[in-house]
């Protein structure tokens, strides 16, 4: 097992922002587990006292971000509005760019299909006899000059 966790790693674990191996270390190492539990309880006591204080002082209500995640209301509470607006703008821009690209691709495919159809129709129209008649035409030698001499 590697060395015990640093205070920075423990802080990241407390903020639910740690690497998977840190979480695994806490589960396997009794010393680090005790330390993280002690700090978590200490933070819980501090949070509770701050919320209780703000409950007594109605004009100074605790911000939603101070509350533990399970007590917060709404999914986007605590996220600054400009971040939500930027995320929405990025989604809209991405969707419009993607739609524009897929429309262009669809138009290009339709154009190719039109060109192919045009070439097929042109080839059919420019034939002297229909394709189904070609085997018969090979049996009959068409020589108009020869017919004129026979008359
Ligand atoms: Zn440890």
Written overview of the protein:
This protein is mostly helical and 151 residues long. It folds into two domains: 1-77; 79-151. 68% of the residues lie in helices and 0% in strands. It is built from six helices and no strands. It is elongated. It starts with 6 loop residues before the first helix and ends with a helix. The structure holds zinc ion (ZN). Zinc ion binds at residues 4-5, 25, 29, 31-32.
Provide the structure class. mainly alpha
What ligands are attached or bound here? Answer: zinc ion
Q: What is the arithmetic mean of pLDDT?
A: 82
Number of strands: 0
- N to C succession of SSEs: HHHHHH
- Rough outline: elongated
Termini, distance in Å?
Answer: 111 Å
């Amino acid at each position: 097992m590697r060395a015990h966790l640093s205070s920075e790693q423990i802080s990241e674990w407390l903020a639910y922002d740690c690497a998977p191996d840190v979480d695994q270390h806490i589960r396997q190492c009794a010393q680090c587990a005790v330390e993280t539990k002690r700090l978590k309880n200490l933070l819980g006591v501090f949070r509770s006292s701050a919320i209780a204080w703000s409950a007594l002082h109605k004009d100074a209500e605790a911000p939603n971000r101070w509350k533990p995640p399970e007590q917060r209301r709404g999914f986007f509470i605590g996220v600054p509005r400009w971040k939500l607006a930027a995320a929405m703008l990025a989604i809209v821009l991405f969707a419009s760019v993607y739609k524009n690209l897929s429309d262009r691709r669809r138009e290009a495919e339709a154009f190719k299909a039109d060109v192919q159809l045009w070439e097929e129709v042109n080839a059919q129209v420019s034939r002297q006899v229909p394709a189904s008649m070609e085997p018969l035409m090979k049996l009959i030698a068409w020589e108009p000059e020869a017919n004129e001499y026979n008359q």
